[in-house]
Amino acid sequence: MRSTGLLAAYSLVSGGWAASCWRETTCTGPLEPAFPGDWDAYNYAPESRSVKPKTVLSSDLLSSTTYDGSVILSADTPQVVLDFAQEVGGIITFNYASNSAAAIGLAWTEAKNWIGSDSDYSNGGSTPDGHLTLNITGPGSGSYEVPLEKLRGGFRYFTISYSSSAGAIVNVSDVVLEIGFQPTWSNLRAYQGYFHSSDDMLNKIWYAGAYTLQTNTVPINTGRAIPMVKNSWANNGTLGNGSTIIVDGAKRDRAVWPGDMGIAVPSTFYSVGGLDSVANALQVMYDYQNKDGSLPEAGPPLLQQGSDTYHMWTLIGTYNYVMYENDTNFLTLNWVRHQKAIEYIYGKVDETSGLLVVTGTRDWARLGQGFNNSEANVILFRTLTTSSYLAILMGDNALSATYQDRATALSVAINTHLWDSSYGAFRDNATNTTLYPQDANSLAVLFNLTSVEQDQSISARLVENWNAIGAVSPELPGQISPFISSFEIQSHFLAGNATRALDLIRRSWGWYLNHPNGTESTVIEGYLENGSFAYRFDRGYSDPSYTSHAHGWSSGPTSALTNYVVGLTVTGPAGQTWSFAPQFGDIQSAEGGFTTSLGKFRAAWAIGDARKSYGVNITTPEGTVGSVLLPRLVGSEKAKITINGKAEVYTTSMVGKLPGFATTIRGGAHSVLVQEIPI
Ligand SMILES: *[C@@H]1O[C@H](CO)[C@@H](O)[C@H](O)[C@H]1NC(C)=O
Ligand SMILES: *[C@@H]1O[C@H](CO)[C@@H](O)[C@H](O)[C@H]1NC(C)=O
Ligand SMILES: *[C@@H]1O[C@H](CO)[C@@H](O)[C@H](O)[C@H]1NC(C)=O
Ligand SMILES: *[C@@H]1O[C@H](CO)[C@@H](O)[C@H](O)[C@H]1NC(C)=O
Ligand SMILES: *[C@@H]1O[C@H](CO)[C@@H](O)[C@H](O)[C@H]1NC(C)=O
Ligand SMILES: *[C@@H]1O[C@H](CO)[C@@H](O)[C@H](O)[C@H]1NC(C)=O
Ligand SMILES: *[C@@H]1O[C@H](CO)[C@@H](O)[C@H](O)[C@H]1NC(C)=O
Ligand SMILES: *[C@@H]1O[C@H](CO)[C@@H](O)[C@H](O)[C@H]1NC(C)=O
Ligand SMILES: *[C@@H]1O[C@H](CO)[C@@H](O)[C@H](O)[C@H]1NC(C)=O
Ligand SMILES: *[C@@H]1O[C@H](CO)[C@@H](O)[C@H](O)[C@H]1NC(C)=O
Ligand SMILES: *[C@@H]1O[C@H](CO)[C@@H](O)[C@H](O)[C@H]1NC(C)=O
Ligand SMILES: *[C@@H]1O[C@H](CO)[C@@H](O)[C@H](O)[C@H]1NC(C)=O
């Protein structure tokens, strides 16, 4: 019985549950946060792997009382709802005592809307998950532990109801959840990055993204079972090798999805840190490469096939991972497979038009995919440019040049056939369709296929899709995708409009985090334009409760706030080179940091009185080099800039696509004061 293990972890010294990793898993995670500080108050991760419910809801679900360690089911109280007050996931244990035979049902849900005697949907079939039943055979007491395969990966509410024999008096006590996620970490709060700003909601959003990614980092043998079970659920699938792996969502699908990793991996790196789960996820995709060179759309046991875009996301994910970790052994191990995957996808480029013709039409959820779709072409461009970079790391300059030449030619084809200059955005494909998709347009800016003028135009056009609670996606009508919006916010920052990016972050992610029926601690997979939690219901999802409320693909603000607001980004392996280019938007101060094998990277800025000057502190590992673009506060051409006490007058220049005062800073600690010289 597992309870023995739990007892063994109980520490009399501290008077609480001692830090521990998941079950038999070896602890390899960090022991302490890299940047301890006041911002730890925003961190949603529990102090311990063993957590108790916080409150008991009233029967009308409108109020609550503190959970005091036991609840009573009786004829008067046939159902009790325990609230953990935030997203959690794992295995629940409890004790019970009853005055007669009874059967009680156990159910879990993320959103408050779906509280009831049955769980929210997660099994992947079209049948309800239902509930687990505990049969109490007669008067007496005992203890119960949820069987491992019935692990509930993501929930906030735990509901106990009579399933029959109502009338017995059953005392359910000592409900404890053993957290299943982030299995190799003994201290779930030991983040290797941090963020803090003068804006409380942005702070919460950054930490909600980070915590979501932790809930998506799961023990290797707790994936959703395939074939999908009916009228219940099973999370006993093996997802890969190793002991920890990153999946798409806490509750579901609990599978490796490389497209999701396009957002989840940067956000993990810049917040929680520790990318062994990412390495295991990418490795399993290569391990299951098909003979023709194609990579699966999803990892085992699901192993869905037939997605050209997700095929490419594995290749882009490889670049991200190698850039952050400098894991050249991983690259060497998979390099032949990587090249084969490039040839597979490049073989679909039409020689006449120079555009990719998509035949693997599965994708993130957009309604249409196929032919010369612009999103897929933009992703191919990124695949080629990043693979060109990887080829240099592998010492193959000729191959690097080949990939770069292909990228350059593709860039010309995309801008020739897909750009609508009269409208000022990319069309969904090279027909005269008037659908200007959120995904391709956001990604084209993000992947640098565009001029400054195109960036401005796309950024302005994207705003036309917004309603009060987010960006409604033209390619998935009626729905708001915080996944695609995670790319969109980056495109607004890259267009130099931080105010616009922050506006969308607040209206979409802020809306969800404030929603009384949500988890108040994570980022949601998607929702309808009217604000109901029914993403893709009627478009493939069997029930509105199927939506995942902890989906890493929606964690884009986490990396974006670090990269564009704090301003720090890794540009060379492990941060050997980096850039610092903050954007202020409407905020007064921000700071943040992250960790690589070279050490800690950290920056802080604060705007001075009357917005006439600002100060910056920046500390990076010795031996690294950063390109720095200090933004203009009021738009002057000149500024007096004092770096480590030494003052100099700087003149504005364009660096990349944005204006500012440019310089280079080497590793070490630096303080900077920027005072603009009025025109
Ligand atoms: C929350 O859910 C309840 C129950 O379904 C519903 O009555 C209420 O309107 C919802 N609240 C919001 C803000 O959507
Ligand atoms: C509980 O009892 C019911 C009715 O006797 C039976 O169908 C069910 O299989 C039992 N469940 C468990 C978990 O033992
Ligand atoms: C329920 O059980 C717990 C644990 O044994 C005990 O502390 C509590 O007093 C019991 N409640 C009632 C109403 O008997
Ligand atoms: C997972 O659990 C389901 C349902 O109990 C069972 O049918 C299946 O064989 C299990 N799969 C594995 C891999 O253990
Ligand atoms: C584990 O790794 C081996 C060897 O690399 C590979 O053949 C196997 O497919 C992997 N297993 C899983 C479940 O990924
Ligand atoms: C082009 O895109 C539009 C909008 O998504 C779609 O309706 C149409 O079917 C696509 N055409 C082709 C040939 O793929
Ligand atoms: C794009 O695909 C459509 C549908 O196959 C085709 O009609 C059109 O000619 C293609 N355009 C280019 C530039 O290849
Ligand atoms: C272009 O769009 C118009 C409608 O806006 C349609 O009537 C026409 O057939 C389309 N032309 C082509 C070549 O697809
Ligand atoms: C973007 O592309 C242009 C060429 O089109 C290149 O000069 C520039 O360096 C690129 N910027 C980045 C950040 O890669
Ligand atoms: C930035 O975005 C805001 C809000 O959409 C807009 O009002 C403003 O004009 C934009 N600024 C620039 C320079 O484009
Ligand atoms: C990256 O890895 C390579 C090969 O192991 C090594 O030579 C290089 O020094 C590493 N770079 C950094 C910045 O750690
Ligand atoms: C920079 O560091 C100094 C010394 O610790 C501190 O006084 C100042 O407030 C810091 N500035 C910012 C913007 O954090």
TrEMBL record:
Signal peptide: 1-18
Iron-sulfur listed as a keyword: no
Keyword field: Signal
Positions in coiled-coil regions: none
InterPro entries: 6-hairpin_glycosidase_sf, 6hp_glycosidase-like_sf, Bac_rhamnosid6H, Bac_rhamnosid_C
Pfam families hit by this protein: Bac_rhamnosid6H, Bac_rhamnosid_C
One term of GO molecular function: catalytic activity
GO-annotated biological processes: carbohydrate metabolic process
Domain Alpha-L-rhamnosidase C-terminal: 567-637
Protein name, UniProt field: Uncharacterized protein
Organism listed in the record: Xylaria flabelliformis
